[in-house]
Amino acid sequence: MTGPQTLSQVFDRLEKALSALDDAVDRSADTRREHAEADEEMQRLNADRARLAEALDDAEARAGRLEEVNKEVSRRLVTAMETIRAVLDR
Fold this sequence. Notes:
Elements lengths: L1 H88 L1
């Protein structure tokens, strides 16, 4: 009777090994899916970063142009005030 018990034990061990293999395959598939999702998120973040960097560059360029216009307006106001003072002083 030890023969059938040994065979039963072998089948039990085989079943446990197959179950462990199935679990390992499931974990591997989950890990791959999580990596794929992380890669997709990284691509979205990189696209957002690029878009934000471009928007920042545009904003900095606009700020520079506004600063130059502000300086020109200030210069013209000073010139106009000096002209008005000169006319009033006469």
